[in-house]
Amino acid sequence: MWIDDAGSSRRVMKHSRKLIFICNGSDCKKAGAKKLGKELKSQCNSTGLKGTCKLIKTKCMDMCKTAPNVIVGDHFCKKTDVDKVMVQLKKS
C-alpha cells in the first residue's frame, strides 16, 4: 500500500507472474512456435513454475529472420528452443 500526493492510500497490485510472449506470425509458426508453446506450457507445469508464469501468444513481432521469437520479461530470445527460454525464465 502507498499514499499518493492527495494523502489517500491505495492498494497496488504487484506483478507476480513472469510474462512469456510467443510470436505466432507465419514464419515463427513454420519454425515451430506452436510446438514451442506447447512444450513451454508442459515444462512450466512440470518444473513447479505453474501459476508463476503466463504464456501469451502474439501476432508477428517483425523479427522473422530470427524465428521463432520469444520475449521473457524484457529479454528477446531469437532462434530459440525450450531450453533457452527456461534458462532465461530462471534468470528473470
What does this structure look like?
This protein has helices at 26-30, 33-46, 82-91, and strands spanning 2-3, 9-10, 18-23, 53-58, 70-72, 75-77. With 92 residues, it is an alpha+beta fold. The chain has a four-stranded mixed sheet with strand order 4-3-5-6, covered by helices on one side. The chain has a two-stranded antiparallel sheet with strand order 1-2. The mean pLDDT is 86.
Produce the secondary structure layout.
Layout: E1 2-3, E2 9-10, E3 18-23, H1 26-30, H2 33-46, E4 53-58, E5 70-72, E6 75-77, H3 82-91
Parallel strand pairs: 3-4
Antiparallel strand pairs: 1-2, 3-5, 5-6
Q: What is the compact description of this entry?
A:
The mean pLDDT is 86. The chain is built from three helices and six strands.
Helix content: 25-40%
Beginning-to-end CA distance, first to last residue: 24 Å
Lateral strand order in the biggest sheet = 4-3-5-6
Order of helices and strands: EEEHHEEEH
Quaternary organisation: single chain
Largest sheet: 4 strands, mixed
Structural class of the helices, strands and pairings?
Answer: alpha+beta
Low-confidence runs (pLDDT<50, min 5 residues)? none
| Average pLDDT level | 86
Strand content: 15-25%
Compute the gyration radius: what is it?
16 Å
The DSSP helix count reads: 3
Number of strands: 6
**Global geometry:** globular
How would you describe this structure in keywords?
92 residues; 4-stranded mixed sheet; two-stranded antiparallel ribbon; 3 helices; 32% helix
